[in-house]
Write a structure and sequence with these properties.
Layout: H1 3-9, E1 16-18, E2 23-28, H2 32-39, E3 43-44, E4 54-55, H3 72-77, H4 80-94, E5 103-108, H5 120-129, E6 132-135, H6 141-144, E7 160-163, H7 165-172, H8 174-177, H9 188-199, H10 202-210, E8 214-218, H11 219-232, H12 235-246, E9 259-262, H13 268-271, H14 285-290, H15 295-306, E10 310-313, H16 318-324, E11 332-334
Parallel strand pairs: 2-5, 5-6, 7-8, 7-10, 8-9, 10-11
Antiparallel strand pairs: 1-2, 3-4
Helix pairs in contact: 4-5
Length: about 350
């Protein structure tokens, strides 16, 4: 399903996204009086500031059980606030951030501690469902959801990291370790990378992404990388490659890293990206991504998805393309590309 179709199907509105996407904060304008009306079977107008704005909603009528009777517990669970909570929790689960579901926070801006006695049953049920409840006067929002949820330093990723071919190329490239001027390397693409390296070195970025992580590479990616290094790599680039995978030779500044090879195991949702769309759409994001997204990509990124690992890559368009194609909760981190350059450098 494309992103547009996904949004047409169901969406929720979040007032504030914090903690690098790990906290969704929804401001609830209902006061204690409105919540008590909910308990009486009436729905208060959504986020209305008018305390008299009580409305009935046919869509929120309680459903009867098989015997035609509705228990008090069932009726309580059908309150609009709980339906809203379930929608937000489902959406958070579908939009995981590096395989962590965001914490959903309901911030009640018109509830005060002394007024909550009669609505504590609602608030307690929200907490039992997994909603973080924040009430003014009871600490800060950060205290409410037990933050900080994101790391203060470094990147937000899984402990196990899946490396794309482009990332290892950048890690072993001679240009990354010994930058040169554009006129000291052959080829327009490498000259552009030399310009970028002079102003934005890639190794510090990679160290920030990979520090203290367990590193893995898919078998198919390793096979392609091996061929590239054998054909294009210089002596020092080949030595770095052997050290990363075999611990042989000089580390050349990569002593902190070792990469293990894992079997191909692409997830079904990534494999489906290679299939024709089930129906023709005006905005055919499925066909759009298939024009660039190959089986090789499906194996690399899909195996990371199966193993619940963040995939690190230099493919800049991948994240946006996957989102446009309707894939949510994809864990990808990008960096600038650096190609093997030792044999093209004249330093």
């Amino acid at each position: 399903m494309s992103r547009a179709a996904l949004m047409r199907n169901r969406s929720v509105k979040v007032d504030l996204v914090a903690e690098q996407g790990l906290a969704w904060i929804k401001v609830i304008a209902r006061n204690a009086k409105a919540l008590r009306h909910d308990m009486a079977g009436l729905e208060f107008g959504e986020d209305s500031d008018n305390e008299g704005g009580l409305v009935y909603d046919d869509d929120d009528k309680e459903e009867e059980d098989d015997d035609g009777e509705l228990t008090a517990e069932d009726a309580f669970d059908q309150l609009p606030i709980f339906k809203k909570a379930r929608d937000y929790l489902r959406s958070a689960e579908a939009h995981q951030v590096h395989f962590r579901a965001p914490r959903v926070v309901f911030a009640f801006k018109r509830l005060h501690p002394k007024e909550t006695e009669n609505v504590n049953q609602i608030l307690d049920r929200l907490r039992d469902m997994g909603i973080v409840v924040y009430i003014q006067g009871r600490g800060t929002l950060l205290d409410a959801y037990g933050g900080p949820l994101a790391p203060e330093q470094g990147c937000l990723s899984t402990q196990k990291v899946n490396l794309d071919v482009s990332t290892v190329l950048a890690l072993i490239s001679e240009m990354s370790h010994h930058p040169c001027r554009p006129d000291q390397v052959e080829g327009e693409a490498l000259q552009l990378q030399a310009e970028r390296e002079a102003t934005s070195a890639v190794l510090p970025v990679l160290h920030g992404l990979l520090h203290d992580k367990s590193l893995f590479m898919v078998q198919t990616a390793y096979d392609r990388l091996t061929k590239i290094v054998q054909v294009v790599g210089g002596d020092r680039e080949k030595m770095r490659f052997r050290y990363l995978f075999e611990r042989q030779g000089d580390s050349h500044g990569l002593e902190k890293y070792h990469i293990s090879v894992v079997p191909d195991a692409p997830s079904e949702r990534f494999r489906r990206l290679l299939e024709p769309p089930p129906q023709k759409e005006k905005l055919n994001n499925g066909r759009k991504i298939r024009s660039r997204f190959s089986e090789f990509h499906a194996v690399i990124f899909g195996t990371g998805d199966t193993n619940r690992m963040t995939t690190v890559t230099a493919i800049q368009w991948m994240q946006t393309a996957l989102t446009d194609a309707g894939l949510t909760g994809v864990a990808i981190l990008c960096h600038e590309p650096r190609s093997l350059s030792e044999q093209k450098m004249t330093v």
